Amino acid sequence: MQSGPRQPRRSLDEDVVALRERGQSYSAVASALGIKRAVNAQEAFIRVMRSLPEKERLALHARESARLDQLEVRIRTRDADQPVKMERHLAGLEALRETMR
Fold it and tell me: Running DSSP on this structure, what letter comes out for residue 101?
């Protein structure tokens, strides 16, 4: 994390969602906000999603699922000639999907 006054967690979590909604990867979000690891940015996203009223939660979930679907297409296209690498990336993608369930 960056030095100086710390943002309240709720505000930081909401910033994670805002950047993710703009299409940034969890890694880019973590870097932009001074979060140590991409997984911590994803955890913040999940906290916000789970705290939302059902209608908003379902809408956010649908948008995130669409982003993950697009990522899967990119992985399958980019790594088609490297099956081991593709399987590793798809396993990571599946882990992202699992955390949203």
Answer: -
